[in-house]
């Protein structure tokens, strides 16, 4: 096969940032994806419908002419989020989802939730109006090993929340463990998960073996190989319950390459090429479109994109992509550490 045409994908978890960095990174998503769920962890975070509306306008004004790209806005949940504002934003079509960051779990999560009980009125309102909750599923307790934080979150927070409020529609974001895959696949239709390209491709050796590699550090941190294989199996099982969320999270190199470097992997420029290669390597190219372009809209109750995208398979492996230059400095692109023969040829 030398060409593959699929429905235009969406990205159900994307960090675009703001200002000069957004200007530089946004074209790398708009070139292949129709819609994206936009993460609200700016400084300050996007905590009201008015802020989400203003951020959406800034994003739209940065979309390159000729590209069709729809940002789907997300409200950052805090212990003081107002259920009425949230309902108004959802009904006005400004807000597509709400993000739960446990306080301290990741980049700019300090305003997140410390005590889930405090946000129950908001979650009840969301269950009532069918607005999805997007969950960064990690506990933050210092006595819990960082590699166990997702599995412990399921036991302590997610499973009890599903028991209390089964009607709440939840996306368990960027899952990284066999436990999370199992939890989602055995759940009902109100539970789904996103999976990133990097968690399908690398394991924790990429970060730590042969020298420390900050460009592979993200949160949740990549786990051991058996977990990567469980994620891949969950995707290839083609059940409709997991779909693409890149968690493309650009930080300029100067912020990553330091004694306390930022978490985040910037993969927007090569998401589809990496996924096509991975699916091809598993004789599963026929399942790529469901993962990138069908199951996400189904969960979000949106139509699939009308547009299509064509990928091209080259005879020789494609060069590793150069860093993306921004006015604040270069941002290194995810290196999948495997030969990639695919590239995106055209979105139409
Ligand atoms: O690696 C990550 N980077 N994980 C997150 O949850 C946040 C993100 C970011 O905003 O940089
Ligand atoms: Zn993220």
What can you tell me about this protein's structure?
This protein is of the alpha/beta class and 348 residues long. The chain has one domain (3-347): Metal-dependent hydrolases (TIM Barrel). It is 34% helix and 17% strand. It contains 12 helices and 13 strands. It has helices at 19-30, 49-62, 83-91, 120-129, 149-164, 178-185, 197-201, 205-208, 225-236, 253-256, 271-281, 288-300; strands at residues 3-7, 11-14, 35-38, 70-76, 95-100, 133-135, 170-172, 191-195, 242-244, 308-313, 324-326, 329-331, 342-347. Strands 2-3-4-5-6-7-8-9 form an 8-stranded parallel sheet. It has a 3-stranded antiparallel sheet with strand order 1-10-13, with helices on one face. A two-stranded antiparallel sheet has the order 11-12. β5, α4 and β6 form a beta-alpha-beta unit. α6 packs parallel to α9 (225-236). It binds (4S)-2,6-dioxohexahydropyrimidine-4-carboxylic acid and zinc ion. Zinc ion binds next to loops.
